[in-house]
Amino acid sequence: MRFLSYIESDPAQPWGPPPPELFEAIGAFGVEAVAAGVVVDQGGLAAIETSPHIRISGGKLTITDGPFTEAKEVIGGYGMYEVRSVEEAIEWSRRFMQIHLDTWPGFEGTSVVRQVFGPDMEG
Q1: By the 8 A CB rule, do 80 and 39 touch?
Q2: What SS3 state is found at 105?
Q3: Are 104 and 14 a contacting pair, CB within 8 Å?
Q4: In sequence order, what are the beta bridge partners of 93?
Q5: Which residues pair with 113 in a beta bridge?
């Protein structure tokens, strides 16, 4: 079973840039997850303010390149896990959030764990 885990946070929060300790801990976590054979992919995402938006509204498709000035929530990074159960995906995601709690004072966010379906996957 595959699960996508991503972190949502409010870009207006005053916790500042990610500290170097966060990246070091995430790197060690990634090495462990790869060694355990559960991580398919992981990474951070570029700023929402400069990311193109493709939208359907009112029966029309529009593309907007930005910059954008306001976002209520952003997805800052993701992990794709291949595990045996949703409980296992939750545990890996919980550990990833614990890294944020331990290394980034003041950070607030939510990790969302969603099962991924495809032609060769259970559903």
Answers
A1: yes
A2: coil
A3: no
A4: none
A5: 5
Mean confidence (pLDDT) of the chain: 89
Q: Which residues are 9's β-sheet partners? A: 74
Q: What values do phi and psi take at 87, rounded to 5?
A: -60, -40
Domain 2-116 class, CATH top level: alpha beta
Tell me which residue of 20, 19, 39, 18 sits closest to 29, measured CA to CA: 39
In the chain the first and final C-alpha atoms are separated, in Å, by 9
Structure confidence at residue 122 as a pLDDT band (50, 70, 90):
low
DSSP code, position 6: E
Per-domain boundaries in the chain: 2-116
Q: List the structure tokens of 79.
A: 């992990």
Which spans in 15-85 are helix H?
20-35
